[in-house]
Amino acid sequence: GQQVMQIPQYQHVQEGEDFTTYCNSSTTLSNIQWYKQRPGGHPVFLIQLVKSGEVKKQKRLTFQFGEAKKNSSLHITATQTTDVGTYFCAGHLNNQGGKLIFGQGTELSVKP
Amino acid sequence: DTGVSQDPRHKITKRGQNVTFRCDPISEHNRLYWYRQTLGQGPEFLTYFQNEAQLEKSRLLSDRFSAERPKGSFSTLEIQRTEQGDSAMYLCASSLREGQTGYTGELFFGEGSRLTVL
């Protein structure tokens, strides 16, 4: 079954508002990746986090990896209509080689 | 185009028929993944290869599903005796194995093969 959980499932925001999606695992993750899937498209890689407590930024996007390496978050500041899509986290469960498990995703809609 | 390509893009079949999907990964990538995605869900792991070796297959996967990567390049995913519950988008992705950790780097996805079973 699904071992990587994401909340919320949906988020509707007004353009300019912030957005956060959370990713939680029941087991320690070796690393975590984030992907964005536009409507009708395929997942596209955004970033990978490896170290405990790591924080990375990409323009308005901030990614965090928890100290215990069991959770992660993606925060978007001042959303734009181009941010619309579904955001997925994906993690390597500890000591499970190349298998990459995806969360259910958070669908973001932005009202102009 | 040097990305991941999948064929066919769409397949409509009747229940009980066999279907086969093909994936051509990025040429220098040694890992190839198959995922299944249904509406509103995240990609569900099916199996992955490192070169020609199938290293893991989902325990949830029926034995009607089989995948091959005979020469470590392209891969095929076959579904035998299709059922309506097999209707989904089948995504292929390729990546490079990270040398020190053995984990997978960035996944590059194809556009997917959409299967509809009537």
Throw out a few tags for this protein:
heterodimer; A: 112 residues; mainly beta; five-stranded antiparallel β-sheet; 0% helix; globular; B: 118 residues; four-stranded antiparallel β-sheet; 11 strands
Describe this structure in words.
- The complex is a heterodimer of chains A (112) and B (118).
- Chain A is globular and about 45 Å long.
- The mean pLDDT of chain A is 94.
- Helix content of chain A is 0%, strand content 57%.
- Chain A has strands at 4-7, 10-14, 19-25, 29-37, 44-49, 55-58, 61-65, 71-76, 85-93, 100-102, 106-111.
- In chain A, the strands form two sheets. In chain A, strands 2, 4, 5, 9, 10 and 11 form a six-stranded mixed β-sheet that branches. In chain A, strands 1-3-8-7-6 form a five-stranded antiparallel β-sheet, with no helix packed on it.
- Chain A is an all-beta fold.
- With 118 residues, chain B is mainly β.
- Chain B contains no helices and eleven strands.
- In chain B, strands 2, 4, 5, 6, 9, 10 and 11 form a seven-stranded mixed β-sheet that branches. Chain B has a four-stranded antiparallel β-sheet with strand order 1-3-8-7, with no helix packed on it.
- Chain B is globular.
- The model of chain B has no long low-confidence stretch (mean pLDDT 93).
- Chain A binds chain B through residues 2, 6, 9, 30-31, 33, 35, 42-45, 48, 88, 90, 92, 97-105, 107, and chain B through 31, 33, 35, 40-45, 48, 50, 55-56, 91, 93, 97, 101-112.
- Determine the most extensive contact between two protein chains: A-B, 25 and 28 residues
**Secondary structure category of chain A:** mainly beta
Q: Mean pLDDT across all residues of chain B, rounded?
A: 93
Give the helix tally of chain A: 0
User: What is the strand content of chain B?
Assistant: over 45%
- The value of Rg of chain B in angstroms is 14 Å
Characterize the biggest β-sheet of chain A: 6 strands, mixed
Globally, the shape of chain B reads: globular
Describe the sheet with the most strands of chain B: 7 strands, mixed
Strand elements of chain B, count: 11
Q: Assembly state here?
A: heterodimer
Low-confidence stretches of chain A: none
Given helix and strand content, the structural type of chain B is: mainly beta
- Order of helical and strand elements of chain B: EEEEEEEEEEE
In one word, what is the shape of chain A? globular
In percent, how helical is the residue content of chain B? under 10%
Terminal-residue CA separation of chain B: 33 Å
Mean pLDDT of chain A: 94
**Count of helical regions of chain B:** 0
